[in-house]
Amino acid sequence: MVSICGIDEAGKGPVIGPLVVCGVKIAEERESELKALGVNDSKLLSPKRREFLFDKILDLVDDHKLVVLGPSDIDAALQDPSTNLLWFEADHIAGIINSLNPDKAFIDCPSNNISAFDDYLRSKLNTDAELVSEHKADKNHPVVAAASIIAKVTRDRAIEELKKKYGNFGSGYPSDPVTRAWLEQNYREYPKIIRKSWQTFKNLIAKKEQKGLSDF
Predict the structure, then answer these.
(1) pLDDT tens-digit profile of 23-39?
(2) CATH for the 3-164 domain, from 3.30.420.10, 3.30.559.10, 3.30.160.100, 3.10.20.70
C-alpha cells in the first residue's frame, strides 16, 4: 500500500498573524475519497464550505501534521543571513515529510525554481520519499487541496481569535486599507501579532520616525 501526503500553506503574505503549513497523509488508492468529499483548492471554496470539510478531512485521512509559525518565528528567520522566507518554509515542509514519512509527497511549490527547491528539500529529509513539487498542486491533487483546506481553516480561526483581542485589522494583507489603518493606530500597542520584517511595517516606522524628526 503506497502512502502519499500533500503539503500546502496559508498566510505567507499577510503582515499580521501566523503562517500555517499543513501536511495530510492517506493511502494513494483512497485519494479519490477526498475528491468525492468535494475537496478542492481552498481558495475556490467559501469559508463555510471549508469549515464543513475540515473535520471530514481529518476523519478520512490517516494522519496529518500542522505547523503554526507566528510573526516572531518569521521575523527571527528573516533576520538570519543564512536563510530566507522560502528556505524557512522549506525547512518546515521537510519536517512535515519526515514526521509523516510517506512514500510520496506532493507539494504546492512556493518557489519559481522547482528543481532548486527540490534539491534543498531533499537535503533536509531523513526519508526516501518521492517528491512531486508543482505549481498549483492544490488544484491538481486532492491530497494537496485537503492540506490547503486544513491550513486555511486553522489560520482563519487563529485570525478570528486575534481580532477578538486586538480589534478588526481586516485581512492582514498589506494592500488592505483596513489593515493599513489598523497598523497606523496600533503598531506600538500590539507589536507581537505584526511581522516586523515586512516592508509594510518598515515603511510605517520610517514614516513615523521622519515625522518625529520634522517636529523638531
Answers:
(1) 999 999 999 999 999 99
(2) 3.30.420.10
